[in-house]
Amino acid sequence: AAVQGRDGGRDGVRRWAIEHRGWSPDVAEILADSRDVLGVVDLPKHEGPSGAALVGRARYSRARVVMPLRDHDGAICSAVCRWIKPDPSKSRKPLKAVQLANRDVGEAPRGRYLGRLNRVGESALEERPIYVVEGEIDYLAVMAAADGLVLGTPSHGGLAQLGEIIAERLHTRAHRASAH
């Protein structure tokens, strides 16, 4: 059963980062404080249609760290769940991570992304760097170390589409800026 309360979720993120990734306590603290890295008890229960499925699947799979996957508008549409110790009895191959299935959360219109794609224009306007990564572990590592917007995809298959969306948003931002 999941530990109850906000600190229980943050504690799980900290422990996972330090004990199972070997990251420093400073990095673990940054991740525990992020709204894009959640402990099981912190999962949004009512944010969009996937909230209940996200909570149920994460708890069922013994997940301790969950990274929301967002659609191109920034709404949570799925999640990547990572757990501390894979349970080999649950499958033939022990898994460390799982993305929620479409049957649980519905089909995302233009992909599923780590980070907040809806903030690309804001970051460009503030002249902050935008980092693009593949995989949730790289996403977490860059997010903890970088001063800027970090975006990613759970696998390399979505990188081209993510790049196209970023370019489209930067072009739109530049066009609006030149019109004023």
Which key features would you list for this structure?
two-stranded parallel sheet; disordered N terminus; alpha+beta; 42% helix; four-stranded antiparallel sheet; 7 helices; 180 residues
Helix content: 40-55%
Which structural class best describes the helix and strand composition?
Answer: alpha+beta
How much of the sequence lies in strands comes to 15-25%
Distance from N terminus to C terminus (CA atoms, Å) equals 55 Å
**Main pleated sheet:** 4 strands, antiparallel
Q: What gross morphology would you assign?
A: globular
Report the order of strands and helices.
Answer: HHEHEEEHHEHEH
Overall mean pLDDT stands at 75
Instruction: Count the beta strands.
Output: 6
Nearest-angstrom radius of gyration? Answer: 17 Å
How would you characterize this protein structure?
- The chain is an alpha+beta fold and 180 residues long.
- The protein is built from 7 helices and 6 strands, in the order ααβαβββααβαβα.
- The strands form 2 sheets. The protein has a 4-stranded antiparallel beta sheet. It has a two-stranded parallel sheet with strand order 5-6.
- The protein is globular.
- The model is unreliable at 1-7 (pLDDT under 50).
Secondary structure topology:
Blueprint: H1 6-20, H2 25-33, E1 38-39, H3 51-60, E2 63-70, E3 76-83, E4 97-99, H4 102-105, H5 120-125, E5 130-134, H6 136-145, E6 149-153, H7 159-179
Parallel strand pairs: 5-6
Antiparallel strand pairs: 1-2, 2-3, 3-4
